[in-house]
Amino acid sequence: MNIDKKKKIIGASVLAAVVFIGGSYWAGKSTENTFRKSMEEMADYGVKVTLLEYRRGIFSATARTEWVLSRSGKVPLTLPFKHNIRHGPFLVLASAASIRSELMPSNELSALLVDTLGGDSFIGKISLTVKSTFVGGGEHYIRIVSPKFEAYAGENRALLSWDGLDGKITMDSGLSKIRAKVVINGLSTTESKDDLLRVNRVTLQTDMKKARGYEFVFLGASSLVLNKLSYQGTDENTGAIRAYAFENARGETGTALKNGGLNIKIRAGADALVLGNSKATIHKPGATFLFENIDAQVLEAISRAAQAQNGESEREQNSIFSLEEHVQSFLKRKPAFSIKEVSAGWPEGATTGNFRFAYTGDGNFDLFSLADLAVDLQFSLPLAPINRLLEEQASQGYSEETRKQVEIINSMINKGFLTEEDGVLSADASLNDGTLSLKGQPKSLEVLQELLEIF
Predict the structure, then answer these.
(1) With 0-12 CB in 10 A as exposed, 13-18 as middle and 19+ as buried, what is 99?
(2) What is the rounded distance in angstroms from the CA atom of residue 24 to the CA atom of residue 242?
(3) Considering the domain boundaries, does residue 188 fall inside one?
(4) Alpha-carbon distance 154 to 122, whole Å?
(5) What distance lies between CA 93 and its chain's CA centroid?
(6) Is-contact 375 337, C-beta < 8 A?
(7) How many Å apart are CA 258 and CA 193, to the nearest integer?
(8) Closest CA to 413 of 431, 401, 426
């Protein structure tokens, strides 16, 4: 190879190295600016973040921050984090940098757990790792991992076992879209062989986006699945052991916005619920809750007022939200609340039910009357499981409470609010246009006063 070619190769190599290192330096500076800005934005959520140190290298950087969370009536909580930041050599790669943040064990964090659990001691190590990959002006991809740990806390030295957490969260820079899946592998507390709580694998998923023109109203769907929750404890009054368990419990929510009216649907249920020592099992318990025609602007105002309470004066808060200003707007949408598809399976039969409560007036709250309401209620359930539960309650030393509950049921049957037939307890009531009906028969509104007197 001749000398000229060698010079060209060396020159090109030096130039490439300068560009590569210079590009890395520029990418590192861009990443640092993004990191600092994201820390400053945390103040919008009531968290004060102080950047204690930022050391920038060619391809990576390290940082230490201190997060201070205010707590009403208590000393603020300080959490120390360390961060490892990696970025590419060029700006386009820097915009896809990754940040690994780790919550450092601290005396304050241990003290928080002791305070939460109501004890005077804590033994164990907690760590939380967050890996965030962000695209400048685009989405943030966050991975949260917390390993297993065990701790002793509380006056009775209860053993707290945490089986770890694994979460994946995606959001845009303006927090207008959030997708997440978080899995808690398990959690248990044990004070003795007769006092324990165990949660097996909890999965939370959400896919939400901010409604256009709103800051606090989000639309979309979320779900929570709990494989099993079991509890066993000793009754302080009788010394009897009580046990309960949910199997495959789940909840689903959906939120939609139509012409300024918010509709929220919540479905909750489980494969089985085991009650008490009788081992009575309710199969497929569940219900659907509906909120319809809820004024989104009123919810937005409430949320803004709640946020304003952090440091705003009373006058400023009142200017943001006044209940009197929004009640009529809220009522003019004719909001409604329903409980539908109520179900529960017993050996003696099934429980079914539906309930709806709606406002039907013109929105003038000053002239509000029962004629402005529409209420419908239907349900039925077998008496045998009710009697079993009442007998078990009485056997555990709650005879007086049981007697009062039996009296209430009998009084409602005698007054016609409930019907007992073939071992099934049922109700069919409605209130429409100011007229009360029980089992399809019109009744005086004075019957409602009698119902209140029973309780």
Answers:
(1) buried
(2) 63
(3) no
(4) 8
(5) 36
(6) no
(7) 53
(8) 426
Report how far residue 163's alpha carbon sits from residue 184's, in angstroms, rounded to the nearest whole number: 7
Residue 187 lies in a domain: no
How far from chain centre, in Å, is Cα 106? 27
Q: For residue 227, what are the domain limits?
A: 193-455
The residue among 201, 217, 199, 198 whose CA lies nearest residue 209 is 217
Beta-strand pair 272-275/128-134 = unpaired
Please give the Cα distance from 130 to 167 (Å, whole number).
9
Ranges of H-type helices in 46-134? 91-94, 107-117
User: Cα(first)–Cα(last) distance of the chain, in Å?
Assistant: 103
- Is 353 domain-assigned? yes
Three-state DSSP at 319 gives helix
Q: Where are the alpha helices (DSSP H) in 42-154?
A: 91-94, 107-117
pLDDT digits (tens, 9 = 90+) for 355-391: 999 999 887 766 668 888 999 999 999 988 888 878 8
Which uninterrupted H or E stretch holds 12?
Answer: helix 3-41
Give the H/E segment covering residue 327: helix 323-332
**Digit-coded pLDDT (tens) for 33-43:** 767 777 776 66
Q: Tell me the three state secondary structure of residue 440.
A: coil
CB 436 within 8 A of CB 415: no
Rounded mean pLDDT of the chain? 76
Whole-angstrom distance, CA of residue 42 vs CA of residue 47:
6
Q: Report the largest interatomic distance among the alpha carbons of the chain, rounded to a whole angstrom.
A: 113
Query: From CA 440, how far away is CA 5, in angstroms rounded?
Result: 102
pTM: 0.73
Tokens of 239: 């010394």
Q: Is residue 374 part of a domain?
A: yes
- How many domains does one find in the chain? 1
Q: What are phi and psi of 449, to 5 degrees?
A: -65, -40
Query: What is the residue type of 397?
Result: G
């804590």: which residue's tokens?
122
- CA nearest to 220, candidates 172, 177, 174, 168: 177
Q: How far apart are CA 285 and CA 268, in angstroms?
A: 8
Q: Which amino acid is at 186?
A: G
Q: If you average pLDDT over residues 399-427, what whole number do you get?
A: 85
